[in-house]
Amino acid sequence: MEPYSELPRTPQANSAEVTPIRRAMSIHKSLLTPFQSAQSTPASKQQFTDETSEYLSYSTAAYDNEEDEKPPSSPSAVPERAETPPYGKTTSALIEDKQNLAWNEKYQLLLDSLPTDFIDSPERFASSASFCFDLLRLSKDFVQLASLYGKIIISEKGLSDDAKTIKPISIGGVAGGRKYLKRGILFKFAQVDDHNIFGGQDEWAAKAGGHELKGLIGFQMADIHELRLPLIALIDYRGYRLVAVSTLPITKSTLVYGSDNGGKTVLKRDATAASLMEELGRRMNLKQHMAGKDVSAEVCGPADIEVHKGLDGRFYVIDHARLFPPEAPSASRNHLFNLLRPEFVKSYKVPLSSDAFSRMTNGAPDSEPNNDDIRVATADLYNAVIPAFVRAFENYLGADDNGGDSWQFFIYSNMSGNVFKKAQKTLIEELHRFGINIRHLGHVRQHATSSGLRKAILVEMIARVMKLHLRTRWRQQLEKFPSSEGSSARHAASKFLNLAFGISDKSLIYWTFELIPKLTDKFKNALTKLERSSMSKGEIERDLKRHI
Length: 548
Prior knowledge:
Layout: H1 20-27, H2 50-59, H3 91-97, H4 103-113, H5 122-155, E1 168-169, E2 179-182, E3 185-189, H6 202-222, E4 227-228, E5 232-237, E6 240-246, E7 255-258, E8 267-268, H7 271-284, E9 288-291, E10 297-300, E11 306-309, E12 315-318, H8 342-347, H9 367-397, H10 407-412, H11 418-433, H12 441-447, H13 451-480, H14 486-501, H15 505-522, H16 529-536, H17 541-545
Parallel strand pairs: 4-12
Antiparallel strand pairs: 1-2, 2-3, 3-6, 5-6, 7-8, 7-11, 9-10, 11-12
């Protein structure tokens, strides 16, 4: 029996429809962990126009005069669009024939090259294995190069433009501040900006940056073959987060669905793109709704998503950070980053709007009903889903020595017990499978009766708060000493860990006035009244730290 067979699993949309690439992933799963649901559909043949060449010259300009520093497998130029390879030709041979392809073209040609009936014969099976190896190699190359240049960009963030190795570029956009382009990879910071979108909170901006990747994964899970996506990587370094995206053959004039000006004008001018997005809505349980301030249209997904009919004839989707609907906001701007998980959205009883509580839908006739749906869904998450998860998970964990609400029992009991270890190992995975966000760990702990589970949740919450504090100190150090090297970051980390786990008065002050307030602010209902009372008196900090 599976270890979690007793836990109810979230239904998957269109689980009966198994695409060729999904079959390949199931067979070669061990080879392709980062791409569990990629897409494959041969695109129609279309020669590049002069406009295409013009765009690609711009997108690959950073490759020029850099032959001496190119790592293996990195792209250097973009030739004309190749035809779908002959049936039976391995993707390895295709890659060897097209050494000069840029990241996106390599990626899309790989997806185009997967046979649709590879299981029928050993030859087809071998071709799919080659596909998986090549896709894994491409993804590793992309991440490696993005990490290399991302670290340089972050390390030089405080320097003047003249002193920077990689210069910023001006390509528009509101969130993320300045952008950088290197080797066909666009970098943008996930941090607060001059427009104050995230209320001055770098933590919120980093979450929004993470939603870029989650939105892309959501599209891949939906298996809409004709909707193509870029390669994306997140680089977390010295307290900052960069979003790295492969450049695409798109321009301002290729936008056919969504908005590129913050929802002022929402377009819906291509019937095929609109049909594909409607299909996405059906598979992901997203509701069509009216959106747009000056020019409005009925859309599925967020109004500021962009679907382009690329210069190569493919449909590309970008700006998908807000693909999933928000929770009912408890504070200003929360709807921009506190989003519902896809597992919850797909299994919910009614479709939900990605633009609920957004200013992009102000005045629309369906705006308030859509907001009401989100309020009800949020209440169901708190009052039904979370309690059901706790019951099922505690049943899986089994019985332990239950000390009730005794704080002294919690502190001095053995944290190496089987229930605690079991909970620590599987908590986050099962939480996500039920469609519950990590930010709700406090509410989960409030319903838990197992001491082992309560301990595991507290350890997880404290570790995440400490991670935020360490990242803040890294950013502060880089802002104070812009030219500092990696050794200074290691020193800052060592200093913080001594503060967090030491026995000095400074450590006690950190726990009392910095860690505990942030813990209770970030995770609502994280501590009981007795725990808060004990902590406020400074009686148990040192004992608790021994177990973290």
